Amino acid sequence: MKKIIIIFTVLLTACNSKKNSMTSTEIFPKGEPLSKDWFTGNAFLKPLIARDKNNEFSAGSVTFEPGARTNWHTHPKGQVLLVIEGHGLYQEKGKPAQIIQKGDVVNIPENVEHWHGASATTTMVHVAITNFKEDTQVTWLNPVTDEEYKTANEN
């Protein structure tokens, strides 16, 4: 009986520690930090599916902490964002920023210059589904300036 209690205690402790590694609302773990070359602030990627012989796209869960955002960029075959947590911003060049929030789907046409990320005060998580054209998936451009980001947060 003592062995059973010890085993049960060990299993319960292991389950509780694993459960505490993610909040109850997270669907995917945070992932690894993304490059400061293409992101401002703290952003993280958890790859979900890689391009392979069946799929001409990849998908990943991206977590943006408050203030984090992508650089301006384009996709030669477009991108789809599925917002799964929090709310943030999406902006196409020359247009006002849009608030995006949990449950929103953003269909980004090919070669449209844009950026996306968290608001200044909230975290945002989205699944990014990004198509390939030959071997190119994204063309990174200049960072979103602090002034552009501030203006986007005021709208």
Written account of the structure:
This protein has 155 residues and is of the alpha+beta class. 17% of the residues lie in helices and 39% in strands. It contains two helices and twelve strands; from the N terminus they run H-E-E-E-E-E-E-E-E-E-E-E-E-H. The chain has helices at 2-19, 146-154; strands at residues 32-33, 39-40, 43-49, 57-64, 69-70, 73-74, 79-92, 98-101, 105-108, 114-118, 124-131, 139-140. The strands form three sheets. Strands 1, 3, 4, 7, 8, 9, 10 and 11 form an eight-stranded antiparallel sheet that branches. A two-stranded antiparallel sheet has the order 2-5. The protein has a two-stranded antiparallel ribbon with strand order 6-12. Residues 1-22 have low confidence and may be disordered.
Short descriptors:
single chain; 155 residues; alpha+beta; 8-stranded antiparallel β-sheet; two-stranded antiparallel sheet; 2 helices; 17% helix; 39% strand; disordered N terminus
End-to-end distance:
64 Å
Largest sheet: 8 strands, antiparallel
Shape: globular
Low-confidence stretches: 1-22
Helix-strand topology string? HEEEEEEEEEEEEH
CA-atom Rg in angstroms: 19 Å
What share of residues is helical?
Answer: 10-25%
Mean pLDDT: 88
The tally of beta strands, per DSSP, is 12
Question: TL;DR of this structure?
Answer:
The chain is an alpha+beta fold.
Any chance you could write out the topology, listing elements then pairs?
Blueprint: H1 2-19, E1 32-33, E2 39-40, E3 43-49, E4 57-64, E5 69-70, E6 73-74, E7 79-92, E8 98-101, E9 105-108, E10 114-118, E11 124-131, E12 139-140, H2 146-154
